[in-house]
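**Protein record**
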Amino acid sequence: MENLNLDVKDLIDDPDMQSAELDEIKLSRSKTVKGLILFLVCSIIGIVVFFGSVTHADGSSETVFSFLYNSFLNLFGQGVYWILVLLIGLNFILHVYCKYIDKGKHSNILFDVYSNDNVVHTVLFALGFFYVLVYSLWLTAGVDAPELIVGDMTGGNVIPPVCKGVFGIIIIGAIFMPFLLNYGVLEIIGVLLEPLMRPLFKVPGKAALDATASFVSSSSLGVLITNRLWKNNVYTEKEMVAIMTGFSAVSIGFAGLVIETAGCGKDFAKIYFISFIMVFLVEIIMVRIPPIRWKKDVFYNGKEQTPEDRKGEAKYTSKTIPTGCGRAVKRAAIARGVPKDIGLSLKDSVVIMPQVLTMISAIGVSAMIIAEYTPIFTWLGYIFQPLLMVCQVPDAAAIAPSMPVGLAEMFLPVLVMNGTAATVAISYQARVFVCLVSMVQIIFFSETIVVMLSTKMPISLKELIICFVERTSSSRRQQQSCWLPSRRSSSGNCWYASLKERS
């Protein structure tokens, strides 16, 4: 590859630019200084926003990101619910038009968004619109509505905290995500994790970037990035499935929402760090068992992967950190610029937001209705209760019904747990456990399953459900050592021992 000179005006950021291409770029002195400044400033902003905390006058604290999106939502008051109605209603109308009226006669971006939809999407989109409309009329206009939809344990447990929260998360996340994604932070993380990926997870080092992007942005972003690289023949079928089902984890912002809802917000950093580690530990197991193990090492173009294709994958050397820093500076130097990156990020978020909000409202409220008015999840919980008891998880019987609902939506376990907590006291440690399991499960219908199936990835719905069950079981086993009582202390001697409920 010829060396690239940054004085060429048309050289702009390429989201798919590989590490080897970055290594070949030769920066002028002025471009190096510019890249270094952008890398440092943008990285600091991103890290402070997503990992920094704000302490309030009453002594409570929250992440800067949480403070920002809550402040953003407060600007609209109850009007935010009608924004949800508008977005979800527009999504339903566009879906019907593109799928059943236009039918691709006029190929455009809208048809591309809805081209993979089917009758199931029609039902879910209509249901999501109906739920949000009824709830908004009841809350803001005083219109009578059935308790089944607007009750505190059904619509009231999904629409205000989740749908409204996700709206704020997507908007504020779109503004600040470029600071972490586009200005070098991922390059350093990728270089540090790269030598571990093949031996531990049987995937190339590049997957570290996909995984990290999912954590700091969204699970859907991780899925879409991975799908793009698969179609570019960067990943094989097995690698792509392993990355999508294993590393497309819950984002920082949404994790904060889950942890806060569970009443564990003061320990956000510790809980999120543990979930980060657990995702990787569970994936070590997942890539070595079916159905992932059965997938083929074949690229998108049909070429089979050979040992030669794996040569040159990075190993730890004295140049590892300098290489990561060099790539970070180069990534920042060739970036489009902060205003343009934020604009593009907001544009992409606006495109996906209506569908995400619709699916959350449709599946979330429906699942909560089933959980509240039927014994289905209680029955399913009986399957998991023995395993929880064997692992000596606190309040196993009380939290068991929350375990299977994660398949519908990863936020639902804490909602079901909160519903149970209204009549049964649930310990702080048990709440932490539910948070961790829900964030590690990864696979759920309201978002990741829908996105995965829409990408036409080589894995069936049946296999995705099997992966969900395997991840749920594996995550509990990974936590077992933490939940077993210590021989030296009746209260235990593990990381969660410091997670005491604080009054």
Notes: The radius of gyration is 23 Å. Residues 402 and 413 are 4 Å apart (CA to CA).
